[in-house]
Write a structure and sequence with these properties.
Keywords: Membrane, Transmembrane, Transmembrane helix. By secondary structure, the protein is mainly α. It is built from twelve helices and four strands. The protein has two domains: about 80 residues, no CATH class; about 230 residues, no CATH class. The strands form two sheets. Strands 1-2 form a two-stranded antiparallel sheet. The longest helix is centred in the last third of the chain and has 45 residues. The termini are far apart.
């Protein structure tokens, strides 16, 4: 054991690696001299531990067999704990408790700011948080303005393709359509979603000064109500749950649509269902579409529905609902 300890010292192990055990378990008359294992596990430490178990087995009255040594290692693995395991376990339990029953100090600000940051990464809005996150500023610079232009072009292209499809359908009104009614209903639904989200983007571009004012004033009103007027216990539990759910599932629509388009490029809401002639035979028979076309179409559709997700979250959550809640809180405190 002394040689192995010397090897460990020469390699410079962690000082907190060896800790005195609370109890010494006994298995078949053999004392199991185990030590807690640190995350930084090297082959020198493993070798020292195995040799230590063999030396302890050689001096006992009932020598350990290979099976018994195997049992020792199993017990050692069972006793293995990460130094941060209990810490993260407590944090997770506390998070669930606070989520189920929000304490009086719960605020909307951190949740809305977190979601707004994810939305503003797309640069699909004329505003963005400043570098330190304390102010709301307009987009500037070629990168941000370029991303804004590309997002507008993407949404406009989607709307144009859907409108062209409906125009062709209206021209062929007298002829028999090859698409079933339920498929046309799905196309109508996704066209409505794209149109509404594109309208939200146009509104934020047209009224960018008012949009900036609403976002900035909502955060300042909550801060003033809490710090100056002593507001507490004003959050609505279901809104907090909804914000947490949106935070967890924020990127799921993007990944789902991107994966679905790569696997089945003829399935709505993919534009391949409208543009590609091979998709007229059915959703599950896109034989003439190459892998490159599927990947490019999947990336385009994933980006499109990422923009749609950001519009829904930011425009409805950050601009409308959050601002309305802060105005309600302000009026309630003033009336007191």
């Amino acid at each position: 054991m002394g040689k192995e300890m010397a090897n460990l010292k020469s390699d410079g192990p962690n000082k907190n690696f060896f800790k005195p055990p609370k109890t010494t378990p006994i298995l078949n008359g053999l004392e199991l001299n185990w030590v807690p294992i640190h995350w930084t596990w090297t082959w020198q430490q493993e070798s020292a531990l195995v040799h230590s178990a063999k030396n302890d087995a050689s001096v006992t009255k009932k020598p350990s067999s290979g099976f018994c040594l195997h049992i020792e290692m199993v017990i050692l693995c069972a006793e293995f704990r990460s130094p941060d395991y209990e810490k993260w376990s407590k944090l997770g339990t506390k998070y669930l408790e606070n989520l189920w029953c929000p304490p009086p100090s719960t605020t909307y600000g951190p949740l809305i700011r977190h979601l707004s940051d994810w939305c503003m990464m797309s640069c699909a809005y004329p505003i963005v948080f400043s570098g330190n996150g304390d102010e709301v500023v307009f987009l500037k610079g070629p990168r941000q303005l370029g991303l804004l232009t590309f997002s507008v072009f993407t949404m406009a292209l989607n709307c144009a393709v859907f409108m062209l499809h409906f125009l062709k359908k209206s021209i062929r009104m007298g002829s028999t359509s090859s698409r079933p009614v339920w498929e046309e209903a799905m196309i109508d639904y996704f066209f409505a979603v794209i149109t509404i989200t594109f309208s939200c983007q146009i509104i934020t571009l047209w009224r960018k000064t008012e949009c900036k004012f609403l976002v900035r004033m909502a955060f300042e009103m909550e801060k003033y109500c809490r710090e100056i007027m002593g507001a507490s216990n004003y959050t609505i539990k279901f809104l907090v749950w909804f914000c947490e759910l949106v935070k967890i599932t924020f990127f799921l629509p993007t990944l789902a649509v991107c994966g679905l388009t790569v696997i089945l490029p003829c399935t709505p809401p993919s534009l391949g269902n409208i543009l590609l002639s091979d998709c007229q035979a059915g959703w599950e028979r896109p034989d003439g579409i190459s892998v490159t076309q599927k990947i490019l179409l999947g990336l385009f559709e994933g980006y499109t529905w990422y923009l749609a997700s950001t519009f829904c979250v930011f425009f409805h959550g950050g601009v409308l609902i959050y601002t309305a809640e802060m105005m309600r809180l302000w009026v309630t405190l003033v009336e007191r």
